[in-house]
Write a structure and sequence with these properties.
By secondary structure, the protein is an alpha+beta fold. The protein has one domain: 2-Layer Sandwich (60s Ribosomal Protein L30, Chain: A), CATH 3.30.1330. The chain has two helices and six strands; from the N terminus they run βββαβαββ. It has a six-stranded mixed β-sheet, covered by helices on one side. Helix 1 runs parallel beside helix 2. It is globular and about 35 Å long. GO terms for molecular function: deaminase activity. InterPro entries: RidA, RidA_CS, RutC-like_sf, YjgF/YER057c/UK114. Belongs to the RutC family.
Length: 128
């Protein structure tokens, strides 16, 4: 297992890494919607969803993978009433990256770090 680190995603805010490789598989830690350039988090759930996906993609790209290689995501939302908004941005992200939709779980949680509205983790494996 090898840790992945990129400046194109926010640094870990605790005792963990941005992601790891296990052979060809890549597993990211949950990605908060923090812009790695500014350190800020957008306000809307739509912008937060997109930023979290961009952060996860940056980690995959550091490992030589792309959005097309995402096999599974877990989406954590603070308010499941935002599900339709998250779903719209999520679907557009994969469509824009010409990537097939992966398997997914989406769960409502009581609270996320930094009071984020969304956190997303991904598991990827090179498609052949």
């Amino acid at each position: 297992m090898t840790a992945i680190a990129t400046k194109d995603a926010p640094a870990a805010i605790g005792p963990y890494v941005q992601g790891v490789t296990l052979g060809e598989m890549v597993i990211t830690s949950g990605q908060l919607p923090i812009n790695p350039e500014t350190g800020e988090m957008p306000e809307s759930v739509e912008e937060q969803t997109l930023q979290s996906l961009k952060n996860a993609l940056a980690i995959l790209m550091e490992a030589g993978l792309s959005a097309r290689d995402i096999m599974k995501t877990t989406v954590f939302v603070k308010d499941l009433n935002d599900f339709a908004k998250v779903n719209e941005v999520y679907g557009k992200f994969f469509d824009d990256n010409e990537a097939p939709y992966p398997a997914r779980s989406c769960v409502e949680v009581a609270r996320l770090p930094k009071d984020a509205k969304v956190e997303i983790e991904v598991l990827a494996f090179p498609r052949r």
